[in-house]
Amino acid sequence: MRILYQLLAVLFMVLQGVAGQHFFPRPADPCVLQNGLCFPGICRRPYYWIGTCSNGGSCCVKYVKV
């Protein structure tokens, strides 16, 4: 019976640590990871297309001359 109290204490400590975390973290958007912006339709100047966004739009990055 004593072990049940110890298990309850351990369970309480684990749940306290998890309380501030998200259970289902949102996956990182690949467009944002590439410093891009999502636009509906096609990319206009000074942006160029680098991929597709999760909502179906175009992932665009601003053209930078080096």
From TrEMBL:
Q: Drop me one GO molecular function for this one.
A: CCR6 chemokine receptor binding
Q: Name one GO biological process term.
A: defense response to bacterium
Annotated Beta-defensin-like domain ranges read 31-60
**Pfam families from the entry?**
Defensin_beta
Coarse class of the protein's main subcellular location:
secreted
Which species expresses this protein natively?
Asarcornis scutulata
| Matching PANTHER family | BETA-DEFENSIN, GALLINACIN-1-RELATED
Q: What is this protein's name?
A: GLL7 protein
Which subcellular locations apply to this protein? Secreted
The record's Gene Ontology cellular component field reads:
extracellular space
